[in-house]
Amino acid sequence: MASAGRKARIERATKETAVNVNVNLDGTGKTRIKTRLSFIDHLIMSIGKHAMIDITLNGESNDGIVHHLAEDVAIALAQSIDKALGDRTRITRFGYALVPMDEALAYVSIDLVKRQYYNVQLKLTRDSIEGVPREDLEHFTRSLLQNLNACTHMAVYYGENDHHKVEAALKAFAVALRMATNIDSKRKGVPSAKGAMQ
Q1: What is the largest CA-CA distance in the chain?
Q2: To which H or E segment does residue 12 belong?
Q3: Which of 127, 154, 170, 179 has fewest C-beta within 10 Å?
Q4: Domains defined for the chain, CATH in brackets
Q5: What is the pLDDT along the chain (198 residues), one digit of tens a residue?
Q6: Sequence-separated (6 or more) residues with CB below 8 Å from residue 189
Q7: pTM of the full predicted structure?
Q8: 110 has which bridge partners?
Q9: C-alpha separations of 9 from 115, 131, 151 in Å
């Protein structure tokens, strides 16, 4: 059973970028993503597809700096998911996934408690992946997890291809997020013994 109205819109405008995001946590994985960073677009599309979240996202760079756009897109996406979760009543709360992509294997575990913590181990080695500097892909991932208002652990166990490693990690994030955001039909109130998600 889906909860009505788990939707949100975030607009983030600075001198560096302009980003707007719409999400529907109870969607079917439909995405329309446009950042002009093709690999970032692909990763966000994968998140929507495998988390079953409808995402419409447009990101514009005002200064032409990839780092700023990757960061602000991740912040806005995470904040929109956080906002759509509302008070997190009746969610499953915990989610985890182990996802392979060819020779790479990645694991993610999420607790949607409102206490922010993240640990990311992508193990990337190349200077750039699909035209995006490695440090900007790492920063995109950290910014996403840091702004989700949750506890998230993400680790690539092994792999040879950096494209496969980061994509496996973000698909694992999506699958874990889908599990954690699901509505538990047996639950009443928030999923916490102390009665609060903080």
Answers
A1: 49
A2: strand 7-13
A3: 127
A4: 7-181 (3.30.230.40)
A5: 344 589 999 999 999 999 999 999 999 999 999 999 999 999 999 999 999 999 999 999 999 999 999 999 999 999 999 999 999 989 999 999 999 999 999 999 999 999 999 999 999 999 999 999 999 999 999 999 999 999 999 999 999 999 999 999 999 999 999 999 999 888 887 676 677 667
A6: 89, 90, 195
A7: 0.94
A8: 95, 152
A9: 22, 29, 22
